[in-house]
Amino acid sequence: MREIVYDNYYWQNDLIRLRAWSADDWNWDYCTNFDSETLRLADCELSLPPTVVASQKFSERIKDFSTANNRTYFAIETLDGTLVGRINILLGDEQHGTFEVATKIDKEYRGKGYGTAAMRIMLKYAFMEKRLNKYCASILEGNLESIAMHEKLGCEQEGVCKQNIYTNGRYHDEILFGLTKEDYLKKINSCRK
C-alpha cells in the first residue's frame, strides 16, 4: 500500500488523529470498561460487568462510521498510531443546530491533552462543516477533568440541575455547559492574534 501523507489532513492536529472505529478495536473497549468510576462519571450509571462479546458486538455496530443512536464514533490515535480513546458526535437535533460530543480516554493517557485535542477537531467539524450553532454538554458533578476540559475549550457553565442524576446511592447535580458558534469563532480568532 502507498504511504499516506497527512500534511493537509483535516482530521488531525499536532497531537492526535481521528479515524474510523474498527471492529478490531473491541479489545480497547473491553479493557477500558473495567474503569467503573470513570464510566459512572461519563454515563451517570454503574455499568454491568464487561464481556468480550458485548465489546465485539458494540465495535461491530459502530465501525466505519456506522451511526448508533444518532452518534458517529471515531477512534482517537496519537500521531504514531497508538489508540488512546474514542469520541462520538451526536447530530440528533440539526433542526435547532445543537449537538453533543462524548469522549472516552484510556486511563493511562489522561491528562495529556488528547481529549481536548479531539474535541477541538469535533467542534471545528460541527461548527464549520455541519453548520451547527451550539454545542451542549451535561456533566455529572465531580467529573473535574471534564469540567476543566470544557472550560479550556471556551464553554460556559449555563446552569445546574440540582440533584438530577441518581447513582452510587445518592442524587447528584448535573452541570450544563454550552458553546455557541459565535463564541467559538471569537475564541479561535483571539488565539490567532
What does this structure look like?
The protein is of the alpha+beta class and 193 residues long. The chain has one domain (16-192): Gcn5-related N-acetyltransferase (GNAT) (Aminopeptidase, 3-Layer(aba) Sandwich). The protein is 33% helix and 33% strand. The chain is built from 6 helices and 8 strands. It has helices at residues 26-32, 36-43, 52-62, 114-129, 144-152, 181-192; strands spanning 16-20, 67-68, 71-78, 83-93, 98-105, 134-140, 156-167, 170-180. Strands 1, 2, 3, 4, 5, 6, 7 and 8 form an 8-stranded mixed sheet that branches. Strand 2 and strand 3 form a beta hairpin. The chain is globular. The mean pLDDT is 93. Residues 16-182 form the N-acetyltransferase domain. This is GNAT family N-acetyltransferase. It comes from Tissierella carlieri. InterPro entries: GNAT_dom.
Keywords summarizing the entry:
193 residues; alpha+beta; Aminopeptidase; 8-stranded mixed beta sheet; 6 helices; 33% strand; globular; GNAT_dom; GNAT family N-acetyltransferase
Topology record:
Elements: E1 16-20, H1 26-32, H2 36-43, H3 52-62, E2 67-68, E3 71-78, E4 83-93, E5 98-105, H4 114-129, E6 134-140, H5 144-152, E7 156-167, E8 170-180, H6 181-192
Topology-level CATH name: Aminopeptidase
CATH architecture: 3-Layer(aba) Sandwich
From the N-terminal CA to the C-terminal CA, the straight-line distance is 41 Å
User: Largest beta sheet, briefly?
Assistant: 8 strands, mixed
Number of domains: 1
Q: What would CATH call the class?
A: Alpha Beta
Share of helical residues = 25-40%
Superfamily at the CATH H level?
Gcn5-related N-acetyltransferase (GNAT)
Query: What's the overall geometry?
Result: globular
InterPro entries: GNAT_dom
Domain N-acetyltransferase: 16-182
Pfam families: Acetyltransf_3
Protein name: GNAT family N-acetyltransferase
